[in-house]
Predict the 3D structure of the following.
Amino acid sequence: MPFAGWEMPVQYVGVKDEHLAVRSDCGVFDVSHMGEIRTSGPQALEFLQRILSNDVAKIAVGGAQYSVLCKPDGGILDDLFTYRLADEVYLTVTNASNHAKDLAWFQRHAEGFDVTVEDAFDDYAMLAVQGPNARRIVGELLDAELPAPFRIAPLSWDPAPAAADPALEPEPIELLVAGTGYTGEDGVELLVAPTYASALWDAVVAAGATPAGLGARDTLRLEACYHLYGNDLSEDRDPIGAGLGWACKEDTGFLGCDAVRDVRAQGDGAHPDGLKLVPFRFTDKGIPRPGNEVVGGGVVTSGTFSPTLEVGIGLAYVPVDHATPGTPIEIDVRGRVRPAEVATRPLYKRSA
């Protein structure tokens, strides 16, 4: 199906089977539609500290950090992962539909800083290998120790043993391997030059990973309560109401910090419209969908049937006085009211 200018696979053999493969074993997703921005130079840190909501100074070389990109009024332009590749070199991964907007924002606000902002979109394909066996599969394939969660490291892959593509160069292929993901499971994301993406995909699948599509990616991230930009986040929502206050460090002076501080100071963690994003689960039959109204005020922003929990789940903005875990709520699903209750994050948590 079309997605952010790409043709994306919704499923290979079925969303449920792919979802459960990730939960029980290992799945691989082609997420090459994600964008990348490279920031480098003597004032790279100062610049990123100005536009990203988290404390960029805490990212060590080889580290990763989640943050949001805010407008001056606190509205969310995107949520991002930033990796520090070297002392003065950072790589920020953007959401596909926001890449051009984010790049323009970076370039616009780089004025006055001794920094170079480059579009690295064409430099990388990205494969996400996720699940309890993901790190073992990738570690054996690369014959290397993988970076820990929230770390990134340059590694290499020797395609010769697989001999999957005679056109591949005999020399090892350079990768960036990040201990990050979007499923709630352990795993890694592999950034590689697009020329080698197909061969790397084939090698990962041959090593035991199940191909997984956009459908399973959505059900997995929703069980883990990870936000999806365009559904749960937007320019009309601020990070506090969206439950992302932990990724905002107002004392760094990032763009939008004053607006975010004002919302936080309300003490209830709510967006100025009185609504707060919460996870929920149905207590009876039914499947929630984005746009379903919460009875008494609010709206579902993400909803699905959970293959792991075997119940309807979702994220919704609800009035603050209905946001406490355990609070019963009702959701209008195409004219039929379904009972639900507010839950705690995450809806699913993997075993240690």
About this structure: The first strand starts at residue 2 and ends at 3.
